[in-house]
Write a structure and sequence with these properties.
alpha/beta, Rossmann fold, 13 helices, globular
Length: 291
């Protein structure tokens, strides 16, 4: 689906004076689909129709991503993205929700869990998280292995590198981080069109500072998983060189209350590479929670 077509499927809301694109579909309990870096809510398109039969889906392009505004002078952070989701929930009268997240979105979810724990302890009314499912992401330090280009973009010289980011470099990266089922040429075109929309590649060095933010807030965000008060699931493509088998092994060691589903043929984008398997794993898990 091209950008002009996708724009017709959703709407915008205002966040700090910026326009944030979102889509909603389905019936049932609220499910927040939180995308990863550097892509957008489009990442869920292969599984959202089936999820919409069970849930009311809320699919945002977070600020700096996809079809949302990408302000040049903005303090991008994972904490701010969590604020964005809370503002969205409040604006739309959403009091409770399930979460399904991927990659960068996993850490946004971890921040939302940390707030949920604190608010429960202080008996403050806030978004009531019902369950959390995570796909490949840097959720535990020591198991996360960012690519060289990520480290360079997050370095002091990163601001000078965005002119060299292009569709060809995206294709090389995705070929390396996908598993058995590679992204097609058409998919790469769609990914790149959204990344580059509204001069998006110029803000990538600012957004990718999340690598440093993760290290600074490691204890808070790992404790959110260890002490997660709601059902927690990790669905992981173990062929992922960034956050694959190493993350699975650490998760089993550090988060004994979480469940794990391994997908040995998938890499970093299991919802795109093996959508049927991801959908089956998630719906089976949620079904058990409801029974």
């Amino acid at each position: 689906m091209r950008i002009d077509q996708r724009l017709q499927t959703g709407r915008f809301f205002n966040y700090k004076g910026h326009q944030i694109f979102y889509r909603s579909r389905g019936t049932g309990e609220a499910l927040f689909l939180i995308h990863g870096f550097p892509t957008s809510g489009r990442d869920w398109h292969k599984i959202e129709a089936q999820l919409a039969e069970k849930f009311t889906l809320y699919i945002l392009d977070m600020i700096g991503f996809g079809l949302s505004d990408k302000p040049k002078n903005y303090g991008y952070s994972l904490t701010d993205q969590a604020d964005l989701w809370e503002v969205f929930a409040e604006k739309n009268g959403i009091e409770r929700a399930h979460i399904l997240a991927h990659d960068y979105g996993d850490t946004v979810a971890q921040e939302l869990i940390a707030r949920h724990i604190m608010h429960r302890r202080e008996r403050v009314q806030s978004l009531d998280i019902q369950s959390v499912a995570l796909l490949n992401g840097g959720i535990l330090q020591g198991g996360y292995r960012p690519r060289f280009i990520q480290k360079m973009l997050a370095s002091p010289v990163g601001g000078y590198l965005h002119p060299f980011i292009g569709k060809a470099s995206l294709r090389r990266t995705f070929n390396n981080i996908f598993g058995k089922n590679k992204a097609t040429a058409e998919e790469i075109d769609d990914y790149w069109e959204e990344i580059n929309y509204k001069q998006g590649k110029r803000v990538i060095p600012k957004i990718i500072q999340y690598l440093h933010e993760r290290k600074k807030k490691q204890t808070r965000w790992e404790n959110a998983l260890v002490n997660c008060p709601v059902p927690l699931l990790l669905i992981n493509g173990t062929q992922d060189p960034i956050s694959g088998q190493n993350i699975v092994d650490l998760f089993r060691k550090k988060v004994p209350n979480g469940e794990v589903v391994e997908l040995p043929e998938s890499g970093h984008y299991p919802q795109s590479e093996q959508p049927e398997e991801v959908l089956a794993a998630y719906l089976s898990w949620v079904g058990r929670l409801r029974s």
